[in-house]
Give the backbone structure.
Amino acid sequence: MEWQRGGFTISTDMDRLDMAFTVDYLAQTYWGEGTAKGKIRQSIENALNFGLYQDDGQQVGFTRVVTDYARFAWLSDVFVIDDLRGRNLGKWLVECAVKHPDLTGMSRFLLATADAHGLYQQFGFEALAKPENFMLKT
C-alpha cells in the first residue's frame, strides 16, 4: 500500500525499503542500542513495514508492526530523521499503521515508549488497564 502527502510517500513495499539505512538508524536508538544488526534486520524482515520516502525516493523514516493479522499487533521502531522532525511525519506514519486495513479490529494493539505517550494517545493508545495481566520474558 502507499499513501502520499506533501512531497512524501509512505509505502509497505519491502523492495523500496533501504535496509542498511533502517538497520543502522535503529541500531543507534535508545531502544535498539546493543542489539546486533542481524537481529534488527531479522525483526524487519518478519514484520509489516512502513517506509517514509521523499519525492526523490530517499528513505527518511520508518515504522513496523509485528502482527498475526487477526488478533494481535505490536507497533514498533517509529522514527523520522532529525532534519524532518516537527512536520507531523511521525504522526502520519503511526496513522497509516493503525489504520492499515489488515490491522483493523485487533483485540490487542500494543506498543512501548519512553517519551512519546502524547503522540500515541492521539491514536487511542492508553496505559494498560490491567498491567498485572501482562508478563515479560527477557
Remarks:
- Residues 2-133 form a domain with the Aminopeptidase fold (CATH 3.40.630.30).
- The CA atoms of residues 35 and 138 lie 13 Å apart.
